[in-house]
Amino acid sequence: MIDRAHLADLLDRERRAFRDRNPRSAAAYEQARAHLFGGVPMTWMNKTAAGFPLYLAEARGARVTDLDGHSYVDLCLGDTGAMAGHSPQATVDAVADRFGGRGGATVMMPTEDATWVGAELGRRFGVPYWSFSLTATDANRWAIRLARAITGRPKILVNSYCYHGSVDEVLLVVGPDGEQVSREGNVGAPVDPTVTSRVVEFNDLPSLERELAHGDVAAVLMEPALTNIGIVLPEPGYLDGVRELTRRYGTLLINDETHTFSAGPGGCTGAWGLDPDIVTIGKAVGGGIPSGGYGLSAEVAARVEGMSGLDLVDMGGVGGTLAGNALSVAAMRATLEHVLTDDAFTAMTELATRFTKGVREVIDEHALPWSVTQLGARAEYRFSDPAPRDGGESNAAGDPDLDDYLHVYLANRGVLLTPFHNMALMCPATTEADVDRHHEVFAAAVAELAG
Ligand SMILES: Cc1ncc(COP(=O)(O)O)c(C=O)c1O
Q1: N or C: which terminus of the chain carries fewer CB neighbours within 10 A?
Q2: Residues 257-269 pLDDT 10s
Q3: What b/e sequence results for 398-420 when a residue is b if at least 16 CB atoms lie within 10 Å of its CB, and e otherwise?
């Protein structure tokens, strides 16, 4: 359907326009190359459709401004880290009060905010006992250690093309012939991940049962809907089947709600009435201040506490000096209490529905074999129709040139999508006009492509 030569010409034109439009970002990137590994503060910032990243000047709510003075409708929102909006006022105030007013971030003393956050996360996600981290990666690492400790089993099972952070146990996929293999590009794996893990496709209960029947899986670590290879929704009955099988085979179920938090105040767990043993979360929960955590069911907490010989206080492999620090929990409290409220999710979801509808209209107008999928406050377009039903299918539907074209075209006209995929996320400050601006530009990009 797509004329590849025409696409290449358009992409080339947009990249040149991007370079012309952003001289200060280009110069800043050039200077950084002398001092930063890869020229960026973190190597993933080289994931840019245009050849160099935009440099941040300011961000507030659903808007960011770059170093060259352009203002953007930000539908990327830090790939979910800013789902509360950039610098939401309640979080700013709480952080200023904690750090500047009363003082203290890293003091090795608990604060009462943490108890409030644990109670609120328990209300939302259904698991009562919480412990905090600064990233979702760490929350997952520590949760799977606890799962291995109490089950006495060595392996973790994940879904193909999942992402749960830079966690050794999750970097494997189902290969073309159904074999389980290390993910391409896996950097310095301590052992082949098939030693520590099993992997199956999402929405595939027979394969899940086959793998669990080995009796060596401590926990299934999963997102209730995949979000890192495009959004892949669970088919009817799938999540019930996962819960039933994990119980039958004595395997714990960990729901990673870091991205699926978009589904509602309690993520998919709350929205769909799920009953996991452990919930992990990170990113948005602190309104932009590094925060995360894992929540344990009463039964899991009791099993951990009933074990002797686990060092949960010092060097046993669970914890971090800065985890649960006063600043981080103050940010979580303010964000949950005043920003990512139940009402905010209602409004964000309505906007994502508007986004989804508008994208579908453009796809239909040009009869493109594309699809768009919504998960609460987030939505994403994919270059396949029907929408992929598992990670392997979604990976196969990828089209990097088309991704790059749309990303640069949108950026050149003041709209940012998350660089890793075609995902758009709504925050409490996003407006209908922001969504409509995306449609206007998206429709123009598609019309040029189709023309
Ligand atoms: C579902 C999920 N879990 C965990 C993580 C890791 O988050 P972080 O990089 O903030 O540790 C991510 C990051 O994208 C994620 O999407």
Answers
A1: C
A2: 999 999 999 999 9
A3: ebeebbbbbbbbbbbbebbbbbe
